[in-house]
Automatic annotation (TrEMBL):
GO annotation (BP), single: response to antibiotic
Protein name, per record: Bleomycin resistance protein
Keyword terms: Antibiotic resistance
Entry similarity comment: Belongs to the bleomycin resistance protein family.
Organism this protein belongs to: Pseudorhodoplanes sinuspersici
InterPro entries registered for this protein in UniProt: Bleomycin-R (IPR000335), Glyas_Bleomycin-R_OHBP_Dase (IPR029068), VOC_core (IPR037523)
PROSITE patterns: VOC
Amino acid sequence: MNAVADPARCIPILASLDLDESYRFYVDRLGFQGARYGEYLIVKRDDMEMHFWLTKDRIFPEHTSCYIRGGQVPALYAEYKARGVERLSDFVIRPWDMKEFYIHDPHGNLLRFGCAPQEIAENG
C-alpha cells in the first residue's frame, strides 16, 4: 500500500446545549483552539479535532462520547489535573487493559482518553 499524504480521519460531531459555553470549556479549560460558524463549533488541539452542533434536547449530549487515544494522554491527564478540570476521573487501567481517564463536558458529552499501559512504559 502507498502512504497517503493526507489520510482520512474520523472527527466526532457532538451535541451542545450552548455553543458559547462549549467554546469556553474546550478553549479555556482543555486548551483547544476554537472557531464558531453560526450554530456550529470546531475545536482543535494538536491532532485532536471535535465539532459541535447546537441542540435543545439534553438527550443527545448526555448519551454521546468520544474516545481519544495516543501517547499524549498521560501528559494531558497531568495538565488537566493541574488545571483543576471539573469532572476529571482518576487515570487507571481498565479491565480491557487500557489506561484511561474521563471528562464530562458541561452538557454531558463523555470524553474518554486512553493509551495502552505498555505505551507509557516504552515512552516514559
